[in-house]
Amino acid sequence: MRKSLQTLGLSLFIVVALIIIGIGLLPGMNPWVSVAMAAVLLAVPLINKWTTSRRFVEWRDDLSVGIGSIDDDHKKLLTLINNLQTAVYYPTGEAFERQALKGLVDYTKYHFEREERMMRENDYADYEPHKRQHEAMIAKVTGFMEAYEKDREGTVEEMTGFLKGWLIQHIAGTDQKYSGHLQSRGVQ
Asked: Any alpha helices (H) in 25-151, and if so which ranges?
């Protein structure tokens, strides 16, 4: 519903802007009104692009843990979060949204299992606290999934924000801590 209202609002703005531009071009009217409204109208796609780009996450080199398979997992997780963002902000339909959500949750679980196995196999001292962070995140997402069934649109936006923030903080913080240990054990 919220996406539909946003789309309707933008459409109405464009129609009103075009009407104002047309009226401003009539004889006896101030042409600067048309020029100003045309400038505003031309700025809409740029503003939309800027605000939209802020919704998505991009891989940065400082997120690398120096282990190729884990970095690849993290890049894929960011892509899956962006897919979910696309489903949230564009009218893609419920099927795409559910598919994006399921893909993200499934791959997150797979990644956590892989990361935890590497830590266990290489006697990482902080394995248990790290695993508890993973478990807490999965529990939170499970709660979101239950709420999603009751309030799809409101929940998915909140969940997407949580996932973006949590993943970036986890990669940039907690995951960086095991990097040196695993690399010293020959994990690349």
From this structure: 31-53, 68-89, 94-121, 127-150
Q: What is the pLDDT of residue 54?
A: 75
Closest CA to 149 of 108, 86, 185, 101: 101
Report the distance separating Cα 72 and Cα 120, nearest Å.
Answer: 20
Helix (H) or strand (E) holding 182: helix 175-184
Q: Which residues contact 120 (CB under 8 A, 6 or more apart)?
A: 127
Mean per-residue pLDDT, 62-78: 95
Looking up tokens 């009218």, which residue turns up?
91
The torsion of the CA quartet 186, 62, 108, 135, rounded to 10 degrees, works out to: 80
Residue 53 clears pLDDT 80, i.e. is over it: no
Taking a C-beta distance cutoff of 8 angstroms, is the pair 59, 74 a contact?
yes
* Total-model pTM: 0.77
Tokens of 30: 């101030």
150, 92 in Cβ contact below 8 A? no
Of 89, 83, 88, 91, nearest in space to 148 by CA = 88
Q: How far apart are CA 75 and CA 83, in angstroms?
A: 12
* Amino acid sitting at position 104: L
For 163, the enclosing helix (H) or strand (E) is: helix 152-169
